[in-house]
Design a protein that fits this description.
It is built from 6 helices and 4 strands, in the order E-H-E-H-H-E-H-H-E-H. Helix 1 packs across helix 6 and helix 2 packs across helix 6.
């Protein structure tokens, strides 16, 4: 029996970057016929937008690339998410600091990585928060996420036994 890998994408409010990462990853897994091997979800550090849908501007930009942002915002649940997910992937430095602070043990910390670690075409340290910017910011987020999701799939599928 094949074990399913669980991936949680995390940003600040779970309305722009992490729901987009979830949608991009699901679309790419679907395109590679890998949907049965992975469970993908997203969450936010804060609960400011809990129960809400993704930012309308982010949804609009994502739809232009045929990504449907269907997730409902929720905060990271500690320790449940850290116990349940195999990989917890933060979008920026602050998300990573917050996730490390939430992690209650070394095993939980070892599940953390940064989205841009999987980029192969972009050399940015963070997926910048597009919330207060214009259209170009939302497009950059999608470009980075597409690149990182491709890299993440290659890493997961190429290194079945060991993630890092």
């Amino acid at each position: 029996m094949m074990s399913v890998k669980k991936i949680l994408f995390v940003c600040l409010g779970n309305i722009c970057r992490s729901p987009s990462a979830e949608a991009v990853m699901k679309a790419k897994l679907h395109a590679h016929n890998l949907t049965d091997k992975y469970v993908v979800d997203s969450a936010g550090i804060t609960d400011f937008h809990e129960g809400g849908t993704a930012d309308a501007r982010m949804q609009q930009h994502a739809m232009r690339r045929n990504y449907n942002l269907t997730s409902i915002s929720r905060p990271v649940k500690e320790p449940a998410d850290f116990d349940d997910f195999d990989f917890i992937i933060g979008m920026d430095d602050q998300n990573m600091r917050d996730l490390k602070a939430l992690a209650s043990n070394k095993e939980h910390v070892n599940k953390l990585s940064r989205m841009t670690d999987y980029c192969t075409q972009f050399s940015m340290n963070e997926v910048p928060d597009p919330y207060y910017g214009g259209d170009a910011g939302f497009e950059l987020v999608l470009d980075l996420l597409e690149d990182a999701c491709d890299g993440l799939i290659n890493k997961l599928e190429g290194e079945q036994s060991n993630f890092r």
